[in-house]
Amino acid sequence: MEISLEDIAKFPAPGMDFPGSFAFSPDSKYATFLKTSNTSGSRALYAIDLNTGQEQVLIKTLEDSPKESLEEQLRRQRLRQMHRGITRYFWTMQGKIVIPDGNSIYILDQIGSTPRLLLDPEEYPATDPKVSSDGEKLAFVSRGEIWLISIEGGVPEQITDGKVKGTTRGLADYVAQEEMRRSSGFWWSREGDYIGFTEVDERHIPDFHILHSGNSDPGSGSIETHRYPFAGSENPKVKLGVTDLKGNTTWLDTSEYEYIARVNWATGHFLYVQCQNREQTELDLLCFDIPSGRRRMILKEESDVWINLHDMFYPLNDGRFIWASERTGYQHIYIYDSSIQTHLQVTNGDWRVDSIAAVDELNEVIYFAATIDSHEGSQIYKVSFKGGAPELMTTEPGLHSTVFSVRSNRMIDTHHSLTQPPSVKMSRLGKTLDPIHIHQNSDSRIELLDIKPPEFFHIQSESGELLSGAIYRPDVAKFGNGPYPTMLYVYGGPHVQVVTNGWNMTVSMRAQYLRQQGFLVSVLDNRGSARRGLNFESHIKNKMGTVEVTDQIDGIKHLIGEKLVDPKRIGVYGWSYGGYMSLMCLAQAPEVFKLAVAGAPVVSWDGYDTHYTERYMSTPSQNTSGYHNSSVLRHVSNIQGKLLLVHGLVDENVHFRHTARLINALISEGKDYDLAMFPSERHMPRSEADRVYMERKITTFVIDNL
Description:
The chain is of the alpha+beta class. Among the domains are: 312-393; 445-705, Rossmann fold (3-Layer(aba) Sandwich), CATH 3.40.50. Helix content is 17%, strand content 35%. The chain is built from 15 helices and 44 strands. It has an eight-stranded mixed sheet, with helices on both faces. Strands 1, 2, 3, 4 and 5 form a five-stranded mixed sheet that branches. Strands 14, 15, 16, 19 and 20 form a five-stranded antiparallel sheet that branches. Helix 10 (577-588) links the parallel strand 41 (565-575) and strand 42. The longest helix is centred in the last third of the chain and has 18 residues, at 688-705. The model has no long low-confidence stretch (mean pLDDT 94).
């Protein structure tokens, strides 16, 4: 059975509907998770009894919530949440479960009870709820202030007060959420008697208006106003405060820094804050002693390239802390003792630590994910605080992500590869007992739709690095041995890796559809992409849109040499940075690419935000030639092939302004183009109807022109 347009648009893709958001109860009796419970795709909350292995549904559905506030909508966009139903939950230390739903908050008091609504979402639309360490108080943000309520219910109490339009307390600003991956703006102390929070002042940033042109009502609700900090312009002014929950606030001095990147509490009322300079070449870890506010510098990271932020700061109970650094060129784990100003490098090698999964302080063991075996995969290892050779915890090739419970001595491992859809199993640490299989693939669409995994290939870049690529090859029995008309699927930007030994590659459904239509689809991770070390990333510094295009062309030339690609019928498609790359490929190599599909493309980097753009390109005034050369607008006159532009009109990330500026340039140069606009979509189309229409537009364009 051939793949249909509806199959491409359907979320999730075949085999990708697997459980997630795993957590263990504080009493170590249950493991909880979210998974789809019905044909509509809504997620429900489940639990497994760790003693019996029995699974049960805890909450299938919640009552309908009021319409989400704009803050909550945008927060979901930043988190890339596509699922419906229950999408978040967390345990309290008292064994209750908190379930945010839109701007509502529900409480499950115990296993088997009925969830109760904690507060009226119409009166108090709640964002980012968090519970104190004793499990008795819940804090949330409503209308730009932090509020407090008993977990048992009652009347909320406002504990911050700014009362100035254009300022908020407890909410992360746009660049923090989108580019720093700091989704929150407030943090409970470990003792539960303080809350650290950011105050954001955006009054000095000019309004950027987004018009909901597709609305039937042309009133004020059709205009969305954002304070968007464009590259080279002013950022929001962000202050860090600590409230004692009684109306007293201590303001902490971070005034010499441009960015507050991370905030973490340690026991003893110590607040650790990671701060960056504007160039993002320095990161300082500061420690504030609360309530005195006394500040100490703990460590400084410096780089000639840039500092990549991470979430691998872990304060230990004895005063030491675990840290990650790329100072050797690859991200590795260190243990610091700030009292005697010494550190120990725990891991080392020409490979990267992706994340820390768990820390066992009693036995001094760190569990982590890393690329030791291959940068195309990720395995789980453990290592002693003292260092030494890491011990492999997982064995199947591919990608692994794990959740540990050191207290209950269990590990939940989610694994997938090019040939294996995601499966989830729970096992005891250090024991060979049969694991509990929480999820194994049962998606009939995989065989029904004749989905075939891509094939890896490798080439050498002009500077000597080995680049990873993959091809989706048409059916030889039906289309012969080639050469084939070819589409290059590209992302190409930093902080992303496309070519992995993962099932998500196999169910790249547009690629599979085109493969079934007789197209070869190729994908390549060029220099500048993620998980290969800082030196590999640094090739794009101050010159985006250069080496990435060179590498993509070299990949295509390699496949032409293998007689797989018809050199007269080559196109390219991508989204966001991939949209930018599609345009740069079409404009810089018109002799190679005859067609491009550019989705939500950045067209000129002076129109994107500060933190992301300046990390790689500096500011427009400091890197004038770099911004000029990296702009698609400079290369429009070279475009010769067919072009389809796709963009959502209410995209608050890559504004439709980018596509509009490109259209002006295309018209000025007399260049033809096709356009698919989506009046109600943001950066990624979420409506299934819109996605089906988009796939019809894209695939018809490709088939008709190649």
